[in-house]
Every structure is written in C-alpha cells, then in structure tokens.
Amino acid sequence: MSNARRAVYRLALASLRYRAAASLATFTAVLIGCSLLIACGGLFESAIRLNATPQRLAAAPIVIGGSGGFKLPDQESETVPYTERAGVPLDAINKITAVQGVGRAVPDVSFSAAVVKDGTPLAGGDTVLSGHDWASSVLTPYSLSDGTEPRMPGQVVLDHTTAGNAGVKAGDKVDIVVNGQRMNFTVSGIAQPAQTVAASALFFSSSDARQFAKHPGTVDLLGVFPAEGVDAQELAGRIAGQLPELTVLTDDSRGSAEFVGVDASQLPLILLAGVFGGMVLVVMALVVSATISLSIRQRQQELALLRATGGTPKQVHRMVIVETMAVAALAVVGGIVLGSVMGNLIFSLSASRGVVPAALEFRQGIIPFAGGALVALLTAFVSAWFSALPAARARPIQALAEAAIPPVSVSAFRRQLAKLFALGTAALALLTMFMPAETAGATGGPAGLTGAIAVGLAGPELVTYVITRFGGTIRRFAGPRADLAMINARARAVAFAAVLTPITLAVAIALGNVYSQTTRGDAAVSDYTGQFKVDAVVSAGAGGVAPDLLKQVSETPGVANASGMVTSLGWIEEPYDGMGSDPTRTVGINANDQASVLGTPVLSGSLKDLTGDSVAVPESEANDLGIKVGDQVTLRLGDGARVKAKVAALLDSPSGFPSLVLPVDLLAAHTTTGLPSQILVRAKPDQDASDLVAAIKQRVNGWPGVTAGDDSMLTENISAGLDVETWINYLLAVLAIAYAAIAAVNMLAVAVLARRREFAVQRLAGADWRQVRQMLLIEGGLVAVVALVLGTVISLFTVIPMAVSVGSFIPSGPLWVFLAVIIAVFLIVLPVSSTAAKMAMKRKPIEAIALPGQ
C-alpha cells in the first residue's frame, strides 16, 4: 500500500470522531437495515426447511404420509402442497413392511375428539384431531401411569394433562365429543408421554378407532421402526424409491406430517419474507443514500479545501468511501447480533397470529447472516460511491461556492431517472387494474416503492417547488416567522429532501399496504357471502357437524332447508388450465333447487343434479377450459384424491371469489376432519329470520361447542384468513414507520446540529431561542405535511387500482389508520426538531460561532 493511500485511510478514520452525529446516523440506518435483512433471510430459510420437531410421533425414526402435494402437469419439478391431510392407502402398508430393513410399521389414524367438562369441550394444543387408536401410542411413546389400556368398545385412555384438566381418573365416566357427537366413555387408564406433547391425546380401542375414523381405506400416517442395525436414513431412501407416491420423512421434517398446515405454510412464509425483504432493501437503500448524501453535503467546504490543498478527486472519493465503510462495518457487526433477535421476534409474532403453525421452527443459518451482512455493506458502498462523486469531481473554487450556497437542482440524469420511476409507478398502477384480485398485490405493492424512489431522486426540486408554489398559503397559516423558515427550506433543499424521503416512503408503504388489503378483504367478504342465501348459521367448534345435529336443525319449525357446508381448495386437473399453482376454492353444500342456500345465479344446468360425483363450475372458468354442462372433468381435491365429476351447472360466480361447488358429502370426505364445519339454514317464506335464529339457538343449546347465529357468522372462516393477511400488512406498516422514524430522527438531528453557527448568528442579531425553535418547528411541519401529501398520493397508485381490480372502485378501510399515520409523522418530526434545536443552542452564541463546520 502506498504512503498516499495510507494517509487517506488515516485521515478518513481520524475524521470520524469530529462528525459523531453523521456517523451515528449512517450506523443506525445500516444497523437496522442489516438486522431486518437477516431476519427476512431467516424467515425464508425456515420456509425452505419446514422443520417441525415431532412430538406425538417422536419415537418413530421414519414417518410416512400420503402424497405431499399436487405435481403440476406442466412443470417438471414444482409441487403445490395439499391443504388437507393426504392418507396412506391400506394396501401400501404391506408393501412398506415388505421393504428390506423394516422392523415394524405402526399405522395411525386421527379423528375429532374432545373431552367435555361443564358442557364445554376442552381444547388441547392447536388441533381437534385428538382421537387415536391405542396401538399408535408407541409412536410417542405413551406409557400408562394408572389403569389399563382400552381393550373394549366404550373405553378410553386420556393423556395426563387432559385427565387433570377434566378432573377424572381411571374408572371414571367421561363425556367426549367424537366427530361432533357427544358420547359417554369409561376412563380405563391415564397415559404419560415420554416427552412434551402440546396436543391432547385420547386413545380408544381398536374397534372404536376403526368406527370413528372418517377416511376408510386409508390411514393418516405410518410410523416405521427399522430393524436392528439398519440406518433410518438409508431405509427411508429405500422406501421412497419403492413407493415414490408417498412422503417419507425423517429427523425434524417428521413434524410436517404430524402438524397439519406446516407444508401449506411454505408459500405464505416465502411471500412474507420476500415482500418484507424487498421493502427493507428499498428503504435501506434510500435511507442510507440520503444519510450519506446529507453528510457529504454538509462537508462540502471541507472537501473543497482538501481539493484546493492538493488532494486528487480519487483521494477525496476514496476517503469518503473509507469513512462510510468503517461505520458500515461496525453497524453490520451489530446487525448480525440484532438480526437473530429480530428474526425470532417477527417469527414468533407471525406464529402467534396464525401466519405459520406454532409447531414450525425458526431456522437462521449462516446464509441469512452472510447474505444480510453482504447486502448491507454493498448498499453502503454503492451509496457512498455515488454520493461522493459530485464532491470529488467538482473544481475547488466551484465546490467552495456550492458549499456556501448549495444547489437545489438535481442532475439531468437523476431527473430523468425520477421521471422513469414515476412512469413506472403509473404503469404498475394501470396494470394492477386489469389483474385478478388475488394477484393484483404483486404489481400494486411495488408501485408504492417506485413512487417513493422517484420522490427521493427529485426531492430537492420538489421541496423548492412546494416553497415557490405554496409560499403564500404557508405564510397565512404559519405567520411572519414562516418567511425565514421558507428561505432556509429553499436554501437547504438537499437536507430537507434527505428527511422527506424516508417519511414519504413510510407513509406510502403504510397506507398502501393497509388500505389495499382492507379493500381487497372487504370485497372478498362481500363476494363470499354473496354466494349464499341464508337466514341462520350453525357452527360446530368441536371438530365438525354430526349427522344428528344436522337432522335436529333441519327439523326445527320454520326451516325450509338446512345444509352442511365445508370449504377447501382443489384443482380441475383435466382439462388442465395451466394455473395449477393457484388452487380454486371449493365449497361443499346440499344445493337443491327448492329453497337453496346457494345464492349464485345458475346460468345453465340445474342444481338438482348436484348429487353424487358432480360439480358446479364458475362460467368464467368453464369458458377458459371449454367445459359445458354434462361434460366430465377430473378434480384433484385438497387431500390429493382424483375424482371424476360430471358438470351439473355453470354458475355466475363473483369474479373476486369464484368457487367450485360440490355436494357436501363428496367434499367433506376429502377434508382432514371428514365433516362439514357449518350448517347453513334457509327459512320458509313466511318465517321471521330473527325468530328462527332464536329457535335454532335453543335447539342446539345442549350440543357442546356448537353456536348459532344469523348470516354474519358466515364470514367467520374467511375473515380469519383475511385477518392474518391484514395483520401482516399492519406489521409491515409498523416496521416501515419505525424504520423511517429512526432514519428521520437521525437525519433531522444531523441537519439541525450542523446549523449551530447559523442559530448563533440569529441569536446575536436579536432572536431568542424560542423564536429560533419556532422557526425550526415550522420547517419540520413543512417537511411533515409535504411527506404526508406525497406519501398519500403515492399510496393511491396502490390502493385505487386494487379497488378497481376487485370491482369496488372506492377503497375501504378504517379511518383511524390514516389518522394514526398522520400523528406518527408529526410525532417523528416535531419533537426531534425541538430537541435538536435545544441541543444546538446549548452553547453561548459566541462559542457556537467558533465551532468548525457550517
């Protein structure tokens, strides 16, 4: 290394202690950005690995389940996970036991079962599929701590926790809701697991388990114990090779077979990590770039003097980069530590809100840490490299002049780039209007980011335009002291733009994400409920609707029709539409023509033919596939079953919520619980709906876990899923506001503290500290208002196209979100301006004038 280069490095490192505020701003921006990128990397790795430590299946070295997902006909490798549990055919058990090295294969079936105490089912863990055959207790293993195993029908073994909660012991009688039906059993024993098991476990005799199992011809899972001396991994590979249609799992991946929903959580978690990571990357790039640009702008005079005293452009450029990278390297070290904490926190919050199953494990290996650190360092380097170019290339005399009167215009290249991003925002918004509602967010969301980038690029000129165009209005509202504030804002437009950019971005992300989701969610709820014509709804919370419950509701006076309902997802496999990665919603109901609970208009065919293996198809999808009434199609249902069904009718389904409609018995048999989840009730023409709801409530009063109400209960299932998506967007909005707050606080503090000498001159000229602070508050208020206006306008390019896409045209959502964003912005700007002003005027004016810097 040459002496000149060493001198540059020494000067760069030595200068850091004289600009602690600017260095701290850069440090914080890189620290938070790096930690969030590492957190996103952890979410992505967790989605790829899908590790879930087995609990009830912990003793089985190998766990075998049904097919893991739908292998897309037009893709060689892509497989979409099934939303329901796919079973293992009984004839596959003999094939598995015949594989060399298999010592024992233990089948397991699960069905809905919950102990009733004081008329209420006792929940255990996150699943209601708590009933099992006692023979499968070895998969944990469970051992009897009291009593005997269930040998006869009517006997049950309870796990230790459930027995304690129910207050029963061996020999007692206990009521259990099995598949929605209340039954009485004798507690033959109490079992203790070898390790912690979160879910309840109720073990029945083999004869009872066969009777209660809802999927004849299959078992849910198979636990395989290798013969003595046989390696489990090697045996698993051998079984997978001989039975490729099954899913063979070992180690922590066994948990995905035990906990329903782990596989299906992969795509939502990848999307969360991708959207969140992309947002963080753009925010970090803008914030870091603005922070470094502001720091360099405030050192323009110093850098010009270095040039005038013999420093070459290359040396000045290198010095700025070395300073920035020294601070960024320290920030990355801190970000690596904070990234682990942030990742665990975001994942835990996501699990608590149902975004991912609680059993899924958060994994954060070396790749997220290395990737996050590398991206953070690269972002800081690129920002410093470009930000330092103007200072390094400027002639010394020109640089000194610019330091005295900073230019407010941006380069022609930067202006054209801003226009390009603005046009991109408009193009994305236009494209979103013509996309399906479910995929519109893929283009609508990035519109907010591109709009904020355009603001960041043209920020100084935007500030100048606002002052010039709306100066008179500002004076009328803020008074005579606004004159000096506007002069400062115009002269320091670059510094003001550095603060404006992150706040604008935060407002755009917060409002765009939240209101686009609420708009889409409200439209989805409206479309979903519009498919049905019901007066009362009965929901079974204890595993499903028992046939006796449906009969009892049907026999209630005033009921014209009562239909069980079940929802799932599936595909039309033949003819294939090429859109297999996006399964279609499937609804199972009893849709007779008389007082039908289905409100969707029938365009051709008849619902009276919707029996047996049949399906009613949305007309839009039928036209795409060339399907007509009477044709036979092959359905791939949520558990992987292939069903050949006759098209009974074509429906005028809502565009935002098209659904395949099947007979309830057909669809329910291919769901995990095997039972309908709700009963939809249609009143007779002369029956008052409210009186009918009251009568049904009284009728189902003795059924544990069963609730009844009006048609508003119909939205519970879809609202639960939409609430999860809304919560994700709220999380993104809060994180965007938080990141912007940190960035704005840093840059406001840096910008205000760098003006100590200016404030000292004002005070020597006769202004007191209150007047100076009032001027700063006007400046801060001006930034806050401009950021709110720009951010709101940018968010409209996301929200309005989403509204058009879902057919509502007018956005919807809670007003308090907008008010909260406004309050948050002013709480970011005004207190910081006031506090920084107090710190900047801490010294006496004559002492402040002697300080170095501007």
Automatic annotation (TrEMBL):
Alphabetized InterPro entries for the sequence: ABC3_permease_C, Macrolide_Exporter_MacB
Lineage: Bacteria, Bacillati, Actinomycetota, Actinomycetes, Pseudonocardiales
Name this polypeptide is given: ABC transport system permease protein
ABC3 transporter permease C-terminal domain mapped to chain residues: 275-393, 731-845
Keywords: Cell membrane, Membrane, Transmembrane, Transmembrane helix
Similarity-based family: Belongs to the ABC-4 integral membrane protein family.
UniProt membrane topology term: Multi-pass membrane protein
Originating organism: Kibdelosporangium banguiense
Residues spanning the membrane: 21-44, 269-292, 324-346, 366-386, 420-437, 449-472, 493-515, 727-754, 775-803, 815-837
Locations listed in the record: Cell membrane
Transmembrane helix in keyword set: yes
